[in-house]
Amino acid sequence: MNNKKVIPMTVPGIGGGQKQSFDISQAEPKRCAVCGSEFFDEVYRIGIISKFAAGNTLNQDLQVKFVTYLCHQCGHEFGKPVPPLDSFSKN
Fold first, then answer.
1. b (16+ CB within 10 A) / e for 17-52
2. Could you state, in order of their start, the residue ranges of all structural domains in the chain?
3. pTM of the model
């Protein structure tokens, strides 16, 4: 019996976004750089592109959203650099 958990995914950049099957048991777990938790919440960062911005030919403000991940335990944003500890003690 095959116990592999295979999940089909569309992978950008591989053949123009072809579906590939991956064994999710081979995925490397990621942990929060601050507290070490392995649980994250998917959230959105919202931005506005001004109607006056170069390249905005629609002549209206545009709302854009970016997906990011926050640590469920401490709220640190995944992938964001962690400041060195000595930077907190300087006045």
1. eeeeeeeeeeeeeeebeeeeeeebeeeeeeeeeeee
2. 28-89
3. 0.60
